Amino acid sequence: MNAASPVLQVTGLSIQYGGRRVSSLPDLSVARGEVVAIVGESGSGKSTALTAILGLLAETSADVSGSVSVLGTEVVGASERTLRSLRGSEMALVMQSPQASLNPTMRLGRLIHRALRRHGVGKAEAAGRISDAMTAVRLDEQILDRYAHEVSGGQAQRFAIALAVCLGAQLIAADEPTSALDATVQLEVLTLIRRLAEERRTAWLVVAHDLAMVSMIADHVIVMRDGEVVETGPTRAVLGDPTHEYTRALLDAVPTLPAGGVGHV
Amino acid sequence: MTTATAHPVAVRRTRRRSPGLGRVLLRRLAHAAVVVAGVVCLTFVIARQLPGDEAVTAAGARATPEQLAAARERLGLDDPLPLQLWHYVSGLARGDLGTSLHTRQPVVSDLGRALPASLELVGSAMVLAVLIGLPLGVIAARFARRRTDLAVRTGSMLLVSVPVFWLALAVQLLLSTKLGWFPVAGEYDRVLDSTSPLTVYTNITAFDALITGNWPILLSTLHHLVLPALVVAAYPTGVVAQMTRAALIEESQQDHVRMERALGFRPLEILLRFSLRPAISPVLTLLALIFAYTLVNSVLVEAIFNWPGIGTYTADAIRSVDTPAIAGVTLVIALVYVTANLAVDLTQIAIDPRTRKS
Amino acid sequence: MSEPILAVRDITLAYGHHVALHDFSLVLERGEGSVAIVGESGSGKTSLARAVLGLLQPREGRIEVDGADIGRLRGSAARTWRRRIQPVFQDGQEALDPRRTIGATLGEALRMAGTARRDRPARIEELLDEVDLRPDLVRRRPHELSGGQRQRVAIARALAASPDLLVLDEPTSALDVTVQARIVALLERVATTQQIQLMLITHNIALAQRLTRHTVVLFNGHQVEAGPTEEILRAPRHPYTRTLVSSTPRLWAPLPKVAPAPPAAPAGDGCAYRSRCPHADDACSVVPALVGSPGVACHHPLTTLALDAAGRNGSH
Amino acid sequence: GTTRAPSSAGSTFTYAFHLNVVTEWDPAVSYSNESIAMANLYESLTRYDAAAKKVEPLLATSWTKSADGRRWTFTLRDDVTFHTGRKLDSTAVKESIERTKKLAGGAAYIWDPVSSIETPDPTTVVFDLAYPVALDLVASSGYGAYVYDTQAAGTGDLAAWFKKAKDAGTGPYTVDTWTAGAETELRLKAYDDYWGGWTDQQYRAVEFRVTPEVTTAWQLLQRDDVSFVDRLTPQIFEQATTTKGVGTSETSSFQNLLALYNTASGPMADIRVRRAIQMLTDTKAIISALHGAAAPADGLIPPGLIGEGDASVKPDATVAKKLLADAGYDAGHPLRLSLTYAQGDKDQGLYVTLLGSALKAAGVQLDARPMQWDAQWTRGKSADPSQRQDIFVMYWYPDYADPLSWFANLFKSAKDPYFNLAYLEDASVDASVASLPKETAIAPAQAARSYLDLQRRIVVDDAAVTPLYLIKYQRAYSADFTGYVDNPAYPNVVFVHDLRTK
Amino acid sequence: MSTTLPIPARRRLRRLAGQDLPTLLAAVALLIVVAAALLAPLVAPYPADGTTATHPAASLLGPSGAHWMGTDAVGRDILTRVMYGARTSLFIAAAVLVLSSTVGVLLGCVAGYSGGWVSDVIMRVTDVFLAFPALLLSLALAVILRPGVGTAIIAIAATWWPWYARLACSAASTIRHRAYIDSARCLGLPRWRIVAEHVLPNSLTPVIVQLSLDAGGVILTAAALSYLGLGAVEPTSEWGLMVQQGQSSFTTEWWIVTFPGLAILLTAFSFNMLGEGLRQALDPRKVAR
Ligand SMILES: Nc1ncnc2c1ncn2[C@@H]1O[C@H](COP(=O)(O)OP(=O)(O)OP(=O)(O)O)[C@@H](O)[C@H]1O
Ligand SMILES: Nc1ncnc2c1ncn2[C@@H]1O[C@H](COP(=O)(O)OP(=O)(O)OP(=O)(O)O)[C@@H](O)[C@H]1O
Ligand SMILES: [Mg+2]
Ligand SMILES: [Mg+2]
């Protein structure tokens, strides 16, 4: 596959529940090493769009139309089998509540092993991949002996990312990955996302509502409201000089310390 | 314990402290003891409230006044109530539950014979219930809201709703007498007592036969066990299927299941390997409750299948207002209930690490 | 001289064996402005709020409202002081009885505040107006409202009791950014127009800056820094405060190259922050006391100079 | 572990009994279900033949009585040994009866008239009585009359020895294994030295299998899993009579169901009310609804016992209504009657249902209460007459084949009620009851007439009771054997030694 | 965060009726049972047979045009008695559920809200009653009072309330930590008022669903009690009693046992089905997905 061709290409995606359109994404592409953020207020259809892109809406009552192509494979209307082959190894998900998204009855090591085996990775190779991924997310390997409720939120979130990394996912979709975390930890995870994008050329699609945070990590921003995209473009352009009043309202509302401030130049 | 704290130090501490397990266990045991004590007192009070005269039962329906007086004396019925309670409780402490009025045997030895038989029956019914109900529940959850699910739901509802005594009669008539597939009643074929005598350790025939390698009796016992066990299993099977289904469906709405799907696991794999464990807790809790319930309910079934268990014993005790026996049965059932609950608590702790936090 | 509106004196809060807040003191004089309690998750902020509201008995120490120990008040005296301090919780959904209409919820508050039955409808309308809600909401139930509306109702209920102090536990963190801004504006307004002081519990320092004059920083159950909000933000002296301040996302700030918190040895008895602190040494095995004004509890408080150096280290 | 003893080889007679079998191993005090086993383990001096209404020899070959009926001399067989090996002689008989009397448990009262026992020689036993009774009948009792080896335990405690499921009888079988509470509770094996001898066509072992459910027992019998079922429903019995490979027997028993009327207090103290209730009780309808489980009881005494005869009241609803009206009961003053009966007894329930329905039609409200026996009895005996019921429903049967039991227990007046739950106080009845034992002992024909008079007096004149019906024994058994005779004097007993296999 | 607004129960019910055929059928079956119970005196073929009348001459007749379900040992029409039996069973179910849920919910709410030793004491008592076999308690009551419908009701209720107590206790102990309870306390509401006005109403939903699920169980238990001679007594028409009376003639007169047995099955089944349907309909999570 061509390095320049996007990992994710969405065109005319529209999701309806019982005839009501709750989310639409006319056009979106995420390239390797790129972080794209979707922002908007609650109910604007951010999560729905993300879920549809991962093909996780297939079994629900949602009507999905349009096209979502991940590494050249069409997701919309794809069979369970195709989707399964994409999931994990090509695209992965990181959810908001870190501990709740990990199985409570399984040690983390077992979970990651299972996932690798599921994708046909042999035992020996699995061990290598796991320690590689754990290094990448800066996690101590002894965490693998623990259950989800025995690790901190930041650790759990980093582990979820490690899962995606070790399966080799090219596209990682993250739904508000830091909003359940403490401020100090939040920054760790953001840094990790940025670093993986740069070092491993992972493509990221991140849902967020904190514009300050978005301004720090995203290359591209999509602003959504009531299921529609109101503004999209490079982060600097959209947040630096918003054209749509809704974006402006969002920006104004952010309770933020003045840029720079203590400890920053 | 702190789990929300975001740095590993606190986590370490969590781990070191988690052997609070012993304390959890002690607490549960204490609860159990309180419950058993409560049951003992309640039983005693109720037993003393029964009108009529224990002495009449003891001395026989046509006893003479002198015989009655002797019986009263012997049973200590003229003692003041607290003294009687004291006698009863101190007897309990010595493992003495008194003497049954209708079998004239120590209640302990009666129960020692009847309880294993019932445990054999109800135990195998429970195993059947899990073996049948659990897969049914999983299948229903896998195909939730489709036709298969509907069939399982309806079927398990029928099992829960059918009156067991009626089911027992029908099954016996159809499968034994009409079709001749199974023996009508009994524990095993008594002819085998002469050809391959059984050495008794636990009074649970199937178990004794198994550990002594007495295959003919084992086979015969299993053959005899099928029908009554199936009948007794009807209710728990239905309940297990429904509970499993509901718990799995609920679990499937948890975040971690979405995560597992996103990792590319198959739906059935997710159900069996990922959802079943966290979902099994309510099913287990229910099993413990049902176990005791079924033990009593076997009153209705055991008589029909000649099963010499606690059900038959209870029915006899009830018929003859055999106070010591009734008290003994009550106590034993309460103990079974409490033990089953404890066992479930422990299993849950083993299965679901979340419960290990106090 | 009037008594301080709230005086928390050396309280220790604990759940079973777990101490959530150690030896905490705080005095809030009347008219002195509002106070923010910041700190990360599990640092004991909510526990403190519950103690101040009388919902959690301190294991040690006492809490005085207008000079009276609230732990000893009974009967009508207790009911009176209770109304003086009113809570607003994080989640409006949780904070409103799902089975009651908004009117009933506010009515109950007014009844407890001693408003006569016939005056209540008018008062309810006034209250709703106060929090920018339409009067026709009275017949609705919480699930028929948006999150922002629910939070307004919760504030209205608190106001119904005519309190002197509002205890706000993360009042906006469940809300959308735009809604958050409006709630903050509302709080700002009622604080000034009704002369109510706020005790704001948050992990969002930006919010503290906007609403309060004083800030107390908690870490793991210990008070690590206390002083004027402006000063703490500008020149934090405790290493934790500094990290906290610098971790708060700001528009266009570059991402610092922070390493994950080191998996250091358990803190033991010493300074709670010892395991994470880059400056920790043997001296830190003794719990530091809160000293100075503005106060800091650290054996190695950062000077402005050291701070600059550290800041550069941390962010590049 | 303990190994369950293998069953004796050879053919086994399997008795499906509906209750637990043994509660008491001591033959002196045994007074319950275990009689079905005891009768095969132990023997008494005589046995009553209900068909011939005659007392037959058993351990005694012959006996004589003095003219005043107060001295009875029995001659014993001399070829009998106990299962313990000891030879049966007059001393053994004396010792066992004296022990039974001394323990005074169970039915020991039957020996009350005996004042002394002499043993002039090893085969002769002489009983001296305080008052005359038919001692040959007493000696045939199914309870308390067994002759056993009092030295079975040697110097040890005999009662404790019996408790270990041992027997010391002279009967054809001896205990093999006993497992309390087990399905096959009891197994007996042949006693090789039995004086009656053994042929190839006899069962060498007997098993008692506890089978509470009738339908289960019947299905077991059809599959040849059991040889004998003591109790069937009439419908199954009917089915059994036409089933190949199954034999049946139907015998009317000595056990009858009585409705005892409260003659002392309450509305039934008025004899018109009692008569009315008697006339509203249609025993024929009850018997027909029982579909063959019951036989008509024309009087208190069942056929097969001395003194039987017709002492019944014809049902007549019109007369009954008139009687009630006379007694002052009508729509304005409805009569309410309370009745107690045995909880769980379906046949009694059926009578109560039918009575309730008939009474309702006559404007009488019946308040029927099923109760456990001891509760029912305690209430019947209560010192406060207002606590007592108006109608007491119970079964009665004699301990040995003599009708006195009904009258001495149920209708003799007494200061505190015991079994006389009709609370009858009739001096002429008391006088008759006092003289009847003697008459039976010395002038049986006279006794028969007296009994009939007495029945009429109680049932018709005093209207103190309605004998509702006689229980009919309906048995089904494997056609593998012949020689089964249902002897109502020994309820439910199968004398297995008498059977011959085909 | 859930983004769904809970849909009002009424709408959910209506939706349920449209979707869930078995639940609908169960509801219809129940309606028929209830109608049979209410209208028994009017529509039963031999109304007198439902109470005291007997016809010994017509006993044990098989099903025929005159007696669709045959007659019993004293010649009563079984169809009539099955219909009258519905009255008894439904009455027992209603009475038991009202009694036990009232007691259970009250105790459970107090326990759940109070926590601490109050909860410990109440819940241990609850456990004792849970551990105490229902059958034996019923026996004791049947002997102390007298067998009959009333006794059966008290006996079943005595062993049934702990379930509601547990349910309400766990609901209340979650509610106790809800912020609206804290808010109420901060307003100075007295304890009993909080329990009565906030905790109780909010603990009811799971109980209501459970009630419907339990109705079937109560009917089965009542039948079992009657079957053992501890429940309803002659001449009351009661299904369990009818089964018991006909049991020994199962191989010969099957109809005596079978029709009341089917009635028990049908009613219990319908209640269970309906309860399950209700549970799903009222579960807000179902709509959330
Ligand atoms: N299963 C469903 N059925 C019907 N409507 C749904 C369903 N799932 C989501 N919606 C609706 O779709 C809309 C978008 O929801 P979505 O969760 O994508 O919003 P969001 O932008 O992620 O909000 P938040 O910031 O609160 O997570 C909402 O109005 C929601 O009510
Ligand atoms: N009811 C409780 N029982 C036991 N421990 C508790 C309880 N409530 C809180 N804790 C513990 O007390 C400590 C302080 O909790 P608190 O809720 O006060 O923290 P917080 O600062 O409000 O955190 P957050 O920002 O997550 O709300 C934590 O370690 C927490 O686990
Ligand atoms: Mg979302
Ligand atoms: Mg908090």
TrEMBL record, chain A:
Native organism: Nocardioides ginsengisoli
Family membership noted in the UniProt record: Belongs to the ABC transporter superfamily.
Gene3D superfamilies per the UniProt record, alphabetical: P-loop containing nucleotide triphosphate hydrolases
Keyword field: ATP-binding, Cell membrane, Membrane, Nucleotide-binding, Transport
MF (Gene Ontology): ATP binding
Pfam family for this entry, one: ABC_tran
Location of this chain's protein in the cell: Cell membrane
Name recorded for this polypeptide: ABC transporter ATP-binding protein
Top-rank taxon, per record: Bacteria
Entry-linked CDD domains: ABC_NikE_OppD_transporters (cd03257)
Record has ATP-binding as a keyword: yes
Residue ranges of every copy of the ABC transporter domain listed in the record: 8-251
Topology with respect to the bilayer: Peripheral membrane protein
DNA repair recorded as keyword: no
From TrEMBL, chain B:
Membrane topology: Multi-pass membrane protein
Pfam families: BPD_transp_1, BPD_transp_1_N
InterPro entries per UniProt: BPD_transp_1_N, MetI-like, MetI-like_sf
Start and end residues of each ABC transmembrane type-1 domain: 115-348
Keywords tagged on the record: Cell membrane, Membrane, Transmembrane, Transmembrane helix, Transport
Cellular compartments annotated: Cell membrane
PROSITE patterns xrefs: ABC_TM1
TM region(s), chain numbering: 25-47, 121-144, 156-175, 215-235, 283-305, 325-344
UniProt entry tagged with the keyword Disulfide bond: no
Domain of life: Bacteria
Gene3D superfamilies linked: MetI-like (1.10.3720.10)
Family, similarity comment: Belongs to the binding-protein-dependent transport system permease family.
Name of the molecule in the record: ABC transporter permease
From TrEMBL, chain C:
Transmembrane stretches, start-end: none
Residue ranges of every copy of the ABC transporter domain listed in the record: 6-245
GO MF term list: ATP binding
Pfam families recorded: ABC_tran, oligo_HPY
Matches recorded under InterPro entries: AAA+_ATPase, ABC_transp_ATP-bind, ABC_transporter-like_ATP-bd, ABC_transporter-like_CS, Oligopep_ABC_C, P-loop_NTPase
CDD domains (alphabetical): ABC_NikE_OppD_transporters
Keywords: ATP-binding, Nucleotide-binding, Transport
Classification via PANTHER family: D,D-DIPEPTIDE TRANSPORT ATP-BINDING PROTEIN DDPF-RELATED (PTHR43776:SF7), TRANSPORT ATP-BINDING PROTEIN (PTHR43776)
Family in the record: Belongs to the ABC transporter superfamily.
Record-given protein name: ABC transporter ATP-binding protein
Automatic annotation (TrEMBL), chain E:
The UniProt record lists the keyword Chaperone: no
Keyword Cell membrane recorded: yes
Gene3D superfamilies: MetI-like
Main location: membrane
Parts of the chain that traverse the membrane: 21-44, 90-113, 125-145, 151-169, 211-233, 253-275
Alphabetical list of Pfam families matching this protein: BPD_transp_1
Keyword set, alphabetical order: Cell membrane, Membrane, Transmembrane, Transmembrane helix, Transport
Bilayer disposition of the protein: Multi-pass membrane protein
Localization per record: Cell membrane
PANTHER family in alphabetical order: D,D-DIPEPTIDE TRANSPORT SYSTEM PERMEASE PROTEIN DDPC-RELATED, OLIGOPEPTIDE TRANSPORT SYSTEM PERMEASE PROTEIN APPC
Family: Belongs to the binding-protein-dependent transport system permease family.
Identification of the protein by name: ABC transporter permease
Provenance organism: Nocardioides ginsengisoli
